[in-house]
């Protein structure tokens, strides 16, 4: 129940920040809606297509598609206000990251997949919506260069599964993992933490 | 029957315009063929992958793949002539848009999916071939910025389904929807109609 | 057995060259790992998603994912040495191309698909890992512009299937096809061979 409520908050927040990204590319209203849907629902879609897990979430529950579309249209109207809500949306985006990660782990675990794949499924769910958004907007995906974005997803998944393996109750493991991942992401933004970068200058091909 | 004939015309036309796009990127002949196939058959492929609807059309009917390849190669030979056929190909492209949309709606409807998803399936079929082409050519997809391209697809799908729900005969609903979507797209090109754009300048992330 | 050993060599080599590409984009360590996995395993993944062939190879064998990740991390450490191994890696990359192609043909053939689709499945397996890498790194896929890359894959697939149809023993057909494709690719790099390019300058859309 808690996870489901957080999921609805998360797809709404992701849709709204994606709508702003589309606005910066001067897309028309329909384009804004498409970018919002791809960003909010794309991570779970990639996960389910790779796992062969049909029907997709938004095909079974078209309401989620409707929510993201409505959030995107709303954003175009209240864009001037959103600037002042920047901090709120960074927090909601971090929330979405950990919520999507936990949901992705749950889906893969319920299919009986091995530990390593469950963690990867969580990371794909958490991060690939943003990757698809960046590809559609024709820019290098920020994912791999931004403050511990994928790393916070990885931490959430590892903690969530590790605590369960260690015998911690499911609900407790979930909350602890989400709080830890959320805190890592927010602190990384606040203090500019980054993963070590691999910088390579030689011209290879 | 009519729809099938129009489909063959549409994939041929889409393959030929895609081949010109590949030529502008100085791709080799094989690259031209790949871009043509992705553009002509990519919308239906994305739809079927998302719906879990296997086998894909071109895997069951490799002939369609052969037609697009042949059309692409032909284009490289007759490119100088195509310049004078520009208007014809813009019309054929608009035809492809509405034909693909109607076919996409039919596929989703035959799977018993809800109204909203049927419309979305039509739009994906109509427009995602062009989106994939633009991604492979590394440019921001034109879809969301061009004269009512996705909007004409949306109109076609809504009319097609709405008229059927209203009791209009299937064949009549199809023709009316296709003519309306085709007219909207052609008039939009002629008079430069566009959807309202969402322009947002703040630097957010 | 030979094919399986070559496959492990090939995904390792592809992961290492992909890691260098990620390093040139200043990605962090996790980004390097993702790019490596997508490049080494992406061709087979696209093939299986299109064929509806689940579970995917790396989901059934997470070890392959582990190998590519380990190879990517290793690359970040030994990057200065790799510059001197440039020729070796160009050879291993050519090996990967023909190995992936043959494996892709085998998968499609074992599903009873027609000749044309088997060849296409081989080409997708051989080349789409690199296409996905280029899309994620936001550059026009090199595939269609580089020295006979896709063409060598096509030659390998056609020879492999053609020789089998002509009654040549399976193992012999495989080795001959792989040697021919490998030789074409290496000679194309050495002598700068290219497919004819389709260059088109008119501004169409």
TrEMBL record, chains A, B, C:
Q: How does it sit in the membrane?
A: Multi-pass membrane protein
What the entry lists under InterPro entries is as follows:
Gly_transporter (IPR005115)
Q: Name one Pfam family in it.
A: Gly_transporter
Residues annotated as transmembrane: 63-81, 88-109, 115-136, 148-166, 172-193
Q: Which domain of life is it from?
A: Bacteria
Which segments constitute the Glycine transporter domain?
Answer: 6-79, 91-164
Subcellular location field: Cell membrane
Print the keywords alphabetically: Cell membrane, Membrane, Transmembrane, Transmembrane helix
Q: Which family does it belong to?
A: Belongs to the UPF0126 family.
Name-wise, this protein is Trimeric intracellular cation channel family protein
Q: What species does this protein belong to?
A: Luteimonas salinilitoris
């Amino acid at each position: 129940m808690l996870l489901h409520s957080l999921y609805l908050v998360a797809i709404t927040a992701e849709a709204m920040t994606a709508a702003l990204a589309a606005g910066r590319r001067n897309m028309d209203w329909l384009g804004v809606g498409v970018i919002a849907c791809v960003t909010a629902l794309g991570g779970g879609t990639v996960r389910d297509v790779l796992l062969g897990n049909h029907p997709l979430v938004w095909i079974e529950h078209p309401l989620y598609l409707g929510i993201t579309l409505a959030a995107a249209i709303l954003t175009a109207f209240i864009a001037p206000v959103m600037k002042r809500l920047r901090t709120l949306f960074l927090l909601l985006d971090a929330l979405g990251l950990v919520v999507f990660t936990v949901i992705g782990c749950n889906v893969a675990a319920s299919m009986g997949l091995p530990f390593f794949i469950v963690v990867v499924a969580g990371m794909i769910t958490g991060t690939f919506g943003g990757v698809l958004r960046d590809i559609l907007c024709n820019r290098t995906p920020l994912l791999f260069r931004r403050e511990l974005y994928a790393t916070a997803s990885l931490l959430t998944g590892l903690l969530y599964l590790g605590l369960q393996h260690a015998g911690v109750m499911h609900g407790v493991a979930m909350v602890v993992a989400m709080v830890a991942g959320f805190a890592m992401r927010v602190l990384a933004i606040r203090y500019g933490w980054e993963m070590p970068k691999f910088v390579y200058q030689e011209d290879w091909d």
